[in-house]
Amino acid sequence: MTTSSTSSRAGFTLIDIMVTIAVFAVIMAGALPALINVSAGMKLGQGQREVYQELQSARLMAVTSNRPIRVRFNCPAAGQYRMTELIGSTTSPVADDDANDRCSVAKWAFPANDSNPTTRPNHDGPVRDLPALVTFGASSTLEFWPDGSVHKRVAAENPWTPVPVAGTAITVVKGAIVKSITVNGLGKIQLVQ
Fold first, then answer.
1. In the chain, what are the domain boundaries?
2. Band of residue 1 on the pLDDT scale cut at 50, 70, 90
């Protein structure tokens, strides 16, 4: 009886492995821009949601404290925002309320130095930052009133003009990608994709 033995040479050659790595590298090079865009979109979405939460908090604070609350954008610096209590009244705000340093935590501390309702402000929030490389588009300060309505300054009027029912947009930008938050005059705040 004769047995024949065959030796099996199963496996990959060096050329097979090099071709596979080359194909994989080409595919990854093509996918890299898409991965970068996903990362940028995630950072932008994070910034959009954080601003949305701050606007919701400002509206709630205005209603519960019975005090007008403003949300200021690019304050004190680009990419930063802060919730501030209106000093004075909507028809006659105190001059300090419009001062350039109104977002300064050195002058306007968070938390407030006291909780005495006769001294103002008591409801200023912390200065918040957008994620890295995310900025605001053209966004004006919004003022939430105790009745839940929203106002913004159009000229030098006091009180500020109500936001129309159609709303106004707060935009956040990263590169060429833009996301918005709409706020209407009745206080409805929505994320726009």
1. 14-192
2. low
What would the two tokens of residue 167 be? 């709303």
Its CATH class, for the domain covering 14-192, is: alpha beta
- Cα–Cα nearest to 104, from 131, 124, 90, 119: 124
Return the residue matching tokens 């680009």.
78
Peptide bond into 111 cis (omega under 30): yes
3-class SS letters over 5-60: CCCCCCCCCHHHHHHHHHHHHHHHHHHHHHHHHHHHHHHHHHHHHHHHHHHHHHHH
113 vs 88 pLDDT, higher one: 88
Q: 15-24, 74-83, 114-123, 160-169: lowest mean pLDDT where? A: 114-123
Using alpha carbons, list the distances in angstroms from residue 154 to 94, 119, 151, 157, 159: 18, 28, 9, 7, 10
Give residue 169's identity as a one-letter amino acid code: A
Mean residue pLDDT of the chain comes to 87
Long-range contacts of 104-109 (CB under 8 A, 24+ apart): 104/76, 108/84
Percent of the chain surpassing pLDDT 90: 47
